């Protein structure tokens, strides 16, 4: 009994249990991705036009991105308190939206709904911050896979919540908003005490590789299963019992990764433990600083022909010069220069990062590419509706699934790039931005099947951004203020969406809708004096509604690609120092 008690305590403090609990948190934290399904409900219930819906979308994006407070609180409060603040905001914000849309409260002005959606969606920043900060500190040597998997579950949450909504068979569409308010609040409250840093750098084991492979396998099976379920529901009419059974299987797949910590703690023998550095301990700070200063001297002292040598010879030459400088510094023959701030690869505060060109290049690239992707996600319901598709939920769920796979793949492949080739992680971001540009151009040309191409490719590429960028930022600017750095970068998506969706997309959509109405009136022979029919005025039909917007965003993604390549060029040496000689 005593042995079981000790193992159970070890189980509760196992970093893999924290990781699995964080997956469950993140599977409820992508509420913003359901806006494509929620917006038609609000639009019909409140009688809004497309510009008003776009303003609600911008409020949602701002709430999803302004996480400064969450980042600051994560360094002060315990993680469970950070998560609980998010629960309160989510429940209050979307709970009141449901009461208004379901007409259980009197209709309120548009700005009130904007505030409520901002508050409700802002709860996501606390969920994201709590889960990511805990797991990046618990797995400091596996940042790409950790961030990719966690952000992937956030991207998949739209499809998961849609499927759970279908199981309950609510009598009205407004109940989707009710489920968004209640569902995540219950789940995250149940697991919030499990999510926290647990000294993961002291729990590294040889079994980690197989554990990650199992997790990746579950992720791929989960995405494939959800896609199959969506296609089945689209192609045939399923009764309530079948939908319930499919949803139960889905929930089992989500819970299944808990097998990893159970097996590691209760069913494995004595485990060899490897030590893994997390953050410099206080007594190591001075030697760490001295090492970075010596590296600065190496950069200044080495001749330009060193960079032209083969990798193995270059490493030997630099190591020899570094050793000489260490000895000279110890003897007092060389005075080591003291720098005012950290170098790339060391720990930055947010204020220190904000004066670095690399940080702003990454941010602007995100504004252009991630902002374009978020614009597609926010308008996907209207896009599919304009092309004549009745069931817009299918496309919203589909883009959530591909968003999930993009985050998983982005974390996995970018990790291979840095570990096997010691090449800058942002090169993966540049690749996905080129692919995004092609998909947006495909839709702009009005080619057949464009809505499917956009749903798949934009979902993959937008998702990949949010696996690649947080990992890259933690490498270039350190883990110490990761929460604040990450939450600042999340401002990029709404900053882009504010312009691309709130101004460009909605303006073009309403213009085309008005033009189409006038043509219909002229064609009927009634003249332009006939009053506008509300539904006709608010609705645009055909690919013309969004083709120009997509063409503009395609060009912006090309600019983002160029900015990412500049970051790659500027950080080659940093990644070579962090990850060493490329592996064969």
Automatic annotation (TrEMBL):
Keywords: Membrane, Transmembrane, Transmembrane helix
Pfam families the UniProt entry points to: NFD4_C (PF23262), Nodulin-like (PF06813)
Membrane topology summary: Multi-pass membrane protein
GO CC annotation: membrane
PROSITE patterns: PROKAR_LIPOPROTEIN
Protein family: Belongs to the major facilitator superfamily. Phosphate:H(+) symporter (TC 2.A.1.9) family.
PANTHER family for the chain: MAJOR FACILITATOR SUPERFAMILY PROTEIN, UNCHARACTERIZED NODULIN-LIKE PROTEIN
Protein name as annotated: Probable transporter mch1
Species whose genome carries this gene: Nicotiana sylvestris (Wood tobacco)
């Amino acid at each position: 009994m005593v042995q079981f008690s000790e193992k159970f305590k070890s189980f509760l403090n196992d970093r893999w249990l924290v990781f699995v609990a964080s997956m469950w948190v993140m599977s409820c934290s992508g509420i913003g991705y359901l806006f494509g399904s929620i917006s038609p409900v609000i639009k019909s219930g409140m009688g809004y036009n497309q510009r008003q819906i776009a303003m609600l979308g911008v409020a949602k994006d701002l709430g999803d991105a302004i996480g400064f407070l969450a980042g600051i609180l994560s360094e002060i409060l315990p993680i469970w308190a950070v998560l609980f603040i998010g629960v309160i905001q989510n429940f209050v914000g979307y709970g009141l939206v449901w009461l208004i849309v379901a007409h259980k409260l009197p209709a309120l002005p548009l700005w009130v709904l904007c505030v409520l959606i901002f508050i409700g969606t802002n709860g996501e920043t606390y969920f994201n911050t709590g889960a990511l900060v805990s797991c990046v500190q618990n797995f400091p040597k596996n940042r790409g896979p950790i961030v990719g998997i966690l952000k992937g579950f956030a991207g998949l949450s739209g499809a998961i919540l849609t499927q759970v909504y279908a199981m309950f068979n609510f009598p009205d569409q407004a109940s989707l908003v009710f489920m968004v308010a209640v569902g995540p609040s219950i789940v995250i409250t149940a697991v919030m005490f499990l999510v926290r840093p647990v000294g993961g750098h002291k729990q590294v084991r040889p079994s980690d590789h197989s554990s990650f492979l199992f997790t990746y396998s579950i992720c791929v099976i989960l995405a494939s299963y959800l896609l199959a379920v969506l296609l089945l529901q689209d192609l045939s009419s399923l009764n309530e019992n079948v939908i319930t059974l499919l949803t139960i299987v889905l929930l089992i797949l989500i819970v299944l990764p808990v097998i990893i910590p159970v097996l590691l703690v209760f069913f494995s023998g004595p485990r060899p433990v490897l030590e893994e550095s997390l953050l410099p301990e206080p007594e190591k700070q001075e030697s760490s600083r001295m090492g970075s200063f010596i590296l600065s001297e190496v950069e200044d002292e080495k001749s330009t022909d060193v960079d032209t040598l083969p990798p193995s010879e270059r490493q030997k030459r630099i190591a020899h010069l570094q050793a000489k400088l260490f000895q000279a510094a110890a003897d007092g023959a060389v005075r080591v220069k003291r720098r005012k701030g950290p170098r790339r690869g060391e720990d930055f505060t947010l204020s220190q990062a904000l004066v670095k060109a690399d940080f702003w290049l990454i941010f602007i690239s995100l504004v252009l590419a991630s902002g374009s992707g978020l614009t597609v996600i926010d308008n996907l319901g209207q896009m599919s509706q304009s092309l004549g598709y009745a069931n817009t939920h299918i496309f919203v769920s589909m883009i959530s699934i591909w968003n999930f796979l993009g985050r998983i793949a982005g974390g996995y492949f970018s990790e291979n790039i840095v570990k096997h080739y010691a090449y800058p992680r942002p090169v993966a971001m540049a690749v996905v931005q080129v692919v995004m540009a092609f998909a947006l151009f495909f839709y702009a040309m009005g080619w057949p099947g464009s809505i499917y191409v956009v749903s798949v490719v934009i979902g993959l590429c937008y998702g990949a951004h949010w696996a690649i960028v947080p990992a890259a930022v933690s490498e270039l600017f350190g883990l110490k203020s990761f929460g604040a750095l990450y939450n600042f970068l999340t401002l990029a998506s709404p900053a882009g969406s504010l312009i691309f969706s709130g101004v460009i997309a909605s303006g073009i959509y309403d213009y085309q809708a008005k033009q189409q109405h006038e043509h219909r009136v002229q064609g009927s022979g009634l003249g332009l004096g006939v009053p506008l029919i509300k539904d006709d005025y608010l609705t645009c039909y055909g690919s013309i509604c969004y083709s120009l917007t997509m063409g503009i965003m395609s060009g912006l993604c090309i600019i983002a690609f160029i900015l990412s390549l500049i970051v790659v060029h500027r950080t080659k040496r940093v990644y070579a120092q962090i990850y060493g000689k490329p592996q064969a």
